[in-house]
Amino acid sequence: QVQLVESGGGLVQPGGSLRLSCAASGSISHIYSMRWYRQLPGKQREFVALITADGNTNYEDSVKGRFTITRDDAKNTMYLQMNSLKPEDTAAYSCDADIAIPGRYGTYAYRGQGTQVTVSS
Question: Which of 42, 73, 80, 116 is deepest in the core (most CB within 10 A)?
Answer without folding.
Answer: 80
